[in-house]
Amino acid sequence: MDNRRRELSKVFEVHIEKNGKTRLAGIEGYFAHAIFTEMNIYYDVVFPEDHEFGRELNNGSWTGIVGMVQRGEADLAIGTLQTNEDRFRAVDFSFPYTTDGMTFVVLKSSEWSKAFGFLELFDLTTWMLLICIFLLATVIFFTMLKGTTSYFEVFHNLFGSMLRQPLIFHVDSPENRLLTGTWLLFSCIMSSVFSGALLSFLATPSNVEVVKNFKELSEAVEKGTQRAYSVKGTLSVPIY
């Protein structure tokens, strides 16, 4: 049990022994205890009420343990505090003895997260152009058939031809046959292009673009496509 506790030890821990004495643990705790022991310093451990590391407020005051040192409520702040220009102006820092990187995690994006994700195979301009062509062709064929077929039947037949269904129109003149052949060629090409794109997507899904660095994260948050969360009162809040 002791070994497990050591493995899970945090950066700074405070334990109260049965005799009432305070025992520090964790990386920062052992480090501080060694210094206090060598210098014969007796100390009390206090915690900020807001449980923050320290961030500057609009009125110039600070929250967290940085604020406690600034106001004189504590003599020393422990907790691997990151240094920046604003904090350095508020309190004095010791010589740096450790470094810590900053990173972020994002949820894994699904390649096809929407129910109508297949519509994204074409862009909006292409879809609008196809709809306009389809509506125009419906009007032209309805006029060509001179009322022998209802508008809905023309619409239904043209839509079916886009889905590779037979086109049932009674045309006699060469001009009408040329128009019908042109539409059949167009619908065959467009349905083949869409089917090919859909099959390619299902066979080898393309990777969705994800945020890779802090610059992209900042841009994504600014655009509203992503939201960033951080521990309250940490240095990353005012920066990002």
Automatic annotation (TrEMBL):
For this UniProt record, the keywords arranged alphabetically read as follows:
Cell membrane, Glycoprotein, Ion channel, Ion transport, Ligand-gated ion channel, Membrane, Receptor, Transmembrane, Transmembrane helix, Transport
Can you tell me where the transmembrane regions are? 124-145, 183-203
First and last residue of the signal peptide:
none
User: In its UniProt entry, what is this protein called?
Assistant: Ionotropic glutamate receptor L-glutamate and glycine-binding domain-containing protein
The UniProt record lists the keyword Ligase: no
Give GO MF terms, alphabetically: ligand-gated monoatomic ion channel activity
InterPro entries from the UniProt entry: Glu/Gly-bd, Insect_Ionotropic_Sensory_Rcpt
Q: Which SUPFAM superfamilies match?
A: Periplasmic binding protein-like II (SSF53850)
State the source organism's domain of life: Eukaryota
What gene is behind this protein? Answer: AVEN_5279_1
Compartments where located: Cell membrane
Q: How does it sit in the membrane?
A: Multi-pass membrane protein
Q: Which residue range or ranges hold the Ionotropic glutamate receptor L-glutamate and glycine-binding domain?
A: 12-71
Q: What is the lineage of its organism?
A: Eukaryota, Metazoa, Ecdysozoa, Arthropoda, Chelicerata
Q: Which organism is it from?
A: Trichonephila inaurata madagascariensis
Q: Which GO terms describe its cellular component?
A: plasma membrane
> A Pfam family name for this chain?
Lig_chan-Glu_bd
